[in-house]
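Section 3.1: Structural characterization of target chains.
Under the original work plan, the team committed to producing a structural model for every single-chain target entering the pipeline before any wet-lab resources were allocated. The record below documents one such target. The sequence was received from the expression subgroup and is listed exactly as submitted; it comprises 393 residues.
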Amino acid sequence: MSAKEPDNVHGDHDDHHDHHDHAEEAHEVIEPIKPTEHGFWRSLKELDGNASYQLDTVGAANEFATPPERTIDPMHRRNFFQLMGASMALAGVGACRYEKEDIVPLARRPEDQVPGVTQQYATAFDLGGVGHALVATAFEGRPIKLDGNPEHPFAAGGAVPGTMRHAGITTFAAASILHLYDPDRSQNPTMGGKGASMDAFRQALPEIRKNLATTRVLAEASSSPTLAALKTRLLEQNPGLQWHEYEPISNDNEREGTRKAFGQPARPIARLDKCETIVTIDADLFVEHPAAMKYSRDFSRSRRMNGSLGIGKMNRLWTVESVFSNTGALADHRLGLRSELAMALLLAIDSNLGGGAAPQAEFLKEKKVAEFVKVLSDELTANKGKAVLIAGR
């Protein structure tokens, strides 16, 4: 029996090898399918050709087959993504509204225009009834850039003595050049909310002139002297006509306050280059103010050591505002306060300066507010005649 045992063991061992060989032969029948000729793959297994659908010859052939339910259900997941992808592609095409335009040279070139050389001319930009003096740079008759006009008194001179004369420009004025190339800019007259032609306007003009006595004109505020002269002539020739001006953000309160104080509307201009203490109450001097460029330049002159205030002196900026602004970012001391509380704060400062009764407001008892009012009042007293307080709209 001992002689047979090795035979049996050997036989079992041979059987094991036989089964292993059969398994290898069965595995070799399915050869891995490598990625396509484009080389696209979604996983490392797919790159090696060992993905499940690659090893299954039947599944590989039907990987992208259309299931029967997709032909019935249009909101199937794959159908949904196909529709959404097409919609996004069409939306991108629709966003490209700029029509093809060929830029051709002038047929009759002016005598003083040199090809390839830019030209500059003076112009103005009106925003909220305030005019800004600008210099436009044009190339081949097309304006491409706007700068401040250095000949204007608001922008004259450099911030540092001895530098060349140059002028700044506000962000709104710099961006206004885009209006010339805005595809939504009105190209024709409108009537009843619909587009019309100049011929239709000329036909309707006699009827409009007949009804000028009962006509109302809605216009934006403007500082143009030409428009003011035309407006005066129109009102004189048609007494019944009414002219209305509207601006979403205006300086009406400032004009009304100066009218009550001086008898006529005026625009106060502070000399920031002479001020050692500057206080702003909800006023963004360097962006929204009509004299933003002048204030920026004057502030820079008195902000430098040994600047316009003299040797070893520099201004200090205090800001009280309800929202973050460029002026608040430059301030030495900033107090965030709601706009409706500004009046009580001013009365508290006035009480410290003049000795009157202080307002009974709870927020004035807060530590940071009380310290702000006290230190500011002391500095205003010390810099009497060299301080300015500017209130916003």
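Residues 30 and 333 are 78 Å apart (CA to CA).
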